[in-house]
Design brief:
Blueprint lengths: L15 H4 L13 H11 L5 H10 L4 H9 L23 E2 L10 E2 L8 E4 L2 H7 L2 E4 L5 H15 L3 E7 L2 E13 L2 H9 L11 E3 L2 H25 L17 E8 L5 E4 L12 E7 L2 E7 L18 H5 L1 E6 L3 E5 L3 H4 E5 L14 E8 L20 E4 L10 E4 L14 E3 L1 E2 L5 E2 L12
This protein binds 2-oxoglutaric acid and fe (ii) ion (FE2).
Fe (ii) ion binds next to loops.
Pfam families: 2OG-FeII_Oxy_2, Zn_ribbon_GRF
Keywords: Metal-binding, Zinc, Zinc-finger
GO molecular function: dioxygenase activity; ubiquitin binding; zinc ion binding
Length: 443
């Protein structure tokens, strides 16, 4: 759900000194690409997201110009999802000293290319080429089925997230709900937590099957984290990654009803998870493509193949489609949210599932950390707990985290220009200035 209510702070920040530093999960436009894409998708559902993105870029990010161009165009023929067969990449990968692994850890060169989609099915390839690992046939078959049946029933009352952007009402192209462990937490979620400037209206108490499966997900994700650190990072966790066991205590459940339902490119919000967050994502029902692409600073000098600390620009721009069948657990590792974006692409065709029909259910289990409860985090000039973001696009300050006003992301809401660099200890615990209102504030 993060993608469709994520929006950049407007350009009119009265803090010019901060403007060069400030960027977020999305491109450098005044609205996030995801919001623009969601808007275009709702106005032109006959076009796929790739076409929309291409045209949006060709029109310098202008939704209006893109929409006009689309109105004058015939929908392109779409490729059928899943038709690109891939067995294994292992036989022809190139090894090189890689991007961030510690000495001794191996890294394989990305084989994706700008403008092309590399389709991966094999968990070994997925672990090699993306910040994710996948466990197929994760649950015992009857448990997966029980969970699916339970959530299909729940999803009958899920809703699309709708929001207003300029003069248009845009709705997320799938439905969802959020589950927490107790009624007390439910109340807190609805009254204290803020998501892109708004409160969640549909928060539910965890269901029996979600609760049962949570334990298995927790164990598997912790095993995968340990394995990842051992095999990819020379036994050393990432800076700011929490050394504590990953402890799922909340879950977003998404329902994609039919091939056109999707989620746009986004990174998941770190506000309540902290830096270098890990997420456990369980897929049920119809197989869909989970796409990932790396985000690198865009100031023209990231094509440097000679530097072992960078991935070439072309490699970085390619997208990878991970095919997620029924009962597969995908772990988004600590490298993911800061450096990559993900999406569920609309599909031209799907294979119906015997129980779910045209639906895919996805559960993202998350570890909401007490240290990041809104009662602890900085509050902006509007007296609302801030959103935590990371500089993704600008080379200057790339990878630095910052707290900012949520309301700047909400169409029609003025918000304030609160900005404060976020500080953490080595283990990602926040260090707040004694007076959190120390950030720059102005109305
Ligand atoms: O459906 C999926 O696999 C991904 C969902 C997602 O990215 C999200 O809810 O943030
Ligand atoms: Fe996500």
């Amino acid at each position: 759900m993060d993608a469709f209510i994520t929006r950049r702070k407007r350009k009119s920040s009265p803090e010019p000194a901060l403007q060069t530093n400030r960027t977020d999960e999305d491109d450098d436009g005044e609205d996030s690409t995801d919001v623009k894409l969601a808007m275009l998708a709702s106005l032109h559902p006959e076009f796929d997201q790739e076409t929309l993105l291409d045209l949006l870029l060709a029109h310098d990010g202008s939704v209006q110009a893109t929409s006009q161009a689309l109105s004058a165009r015939l929908p392109p023929r779409k490729s059928v999802a899943g038709t690109v067969a891939q067995t294994s990449l292992r036989s022809f990968t190139l090894e090189h000293a890689g991007n961030s692994p510690a000495p001794g850890a191996k890294r394989t060169k990305l084989l994706s290319r700008k403008g092309a989609t590399l389709h991966l099915y094999d968990p070994v390839d997925i672990a090699e080429h993306t910040p994710c690992t996948v466990l197929l046939n994760f649950l015992p078959a009857d448990e997966a089925n029980d969970l699916l049946v339970e959530l299909l029933e729940e999803s009958k009352t899920f809703e699309k997230i709708t929001f207003k952007l300029f003069d248009n009402v845009v709705s997320s192209p799938h439905t969802s709900s959020f589950y927490v462990e107790s009624y007390d937490e439910r109340d807190q979620q609805m009254h204290e937590y803020v998501y892109n400037g708004a409160r969640l209206t549909d928060v539910r108490k965890i269901t029996p099957m979600l609760e049962k499966v949570k334990t298995r997900v927790g164990e598997a994700v912790n095993r995968e984290i340990a394995e990842r650190i051992r095999t990819r990072h020379g036994g050393k966790k990432l800076k700011y990654q929490s050394p504590k066991p990953w402890c799922p205590n909340a879950a977003f459940v998404n329902c994609y009803n039919g091939p056109q339902e999707s989620v746009g490119w986004h990174s998941d919000q770190l506000t309540y998870l902290g830096p270098r967050a890990v997420i456990g994502s369980l897929s049920l029902g119809v197989t869909r493509e989970f796409r990932v692409r790396r985000v690198l600073p865009k100031d023209g000098d990231n094509d440097d193949n000679t530097n072992n600390n960078t991935v070439s620009g072309a490699d970085a721009e390619g997208q990878i489609a991970i095919h997620l069948p029924h009962n597969s657990l995908l772990v988004m590792h600590a490298e993911m949210q800061e450096e990559w974006k993900h999406s569920i692409a609309p599909a031209a065709a799907i294979d119906p599932h015997p129980v779910a029909g045209r639906r895919r259910i996805n559960i993202t289990y998350r570890d909401y950390r007490e240290e990041f409860h809104p009662r602890h985090t900085p509050r902006c000039g509007c007296d609302v707990a801030c959103v935590l973001r990371v500089v993704q696009r600008k080379r200057e300050n790339w990878g630095r985290y910052f707290w900012m006003c949520h309301a700047g992301n909400v169409p029609g809401k003025a918000g304030c220009s609160f900005f404060q660099w976020a500080e953490f200890d080595e283990d990602g615990n926040p260090r707040f200035p004694r007076d959190s209102s120390k950030g720059s504030k102005s109305k």
